[in-house]
Design goal:
This protein has helices at about 10-15, 20-70. It has about 70 residues and is mainly alpha-helical. The chain has one domain (about 10-70). The N and C termini lie far apart (about 85 Å).
């Protein structure tokens, strides 16, 4: 059975007086991981919107050229 270095939950959360630094670093780590999961999805959505707009613009130009040629 593992031995714990802390006497209780309050002692664990205090982290031997370094709680602020420890929990801030955990929070920062969680934010970085979340950003690394979310950012590619945001970028993909932007790229798909740009591609869709370009395709619509090109379709409109092609339609305009056909009407000008007739």
């Amino acid at each position: 059975m593992p031995e714990f270095q802390f006497d209780g939950m309050q002692d664990f959360l205090a982290m031997g007086g370094y709680a602020f630094y420890v929990w801030i670093s955990y929070l920062f780590f969680a934010l970085v991981v979340a950003w690394n999961l979310i950012q590619p999805r945001i970028e993909r959505r932007k790229l798909l919107q740009l591609h869709k707009a370009r395709m619509q613009r090109e379709a409109g130009l092609n339609k305009q050229r056909v009407t000008e040629q007739s």
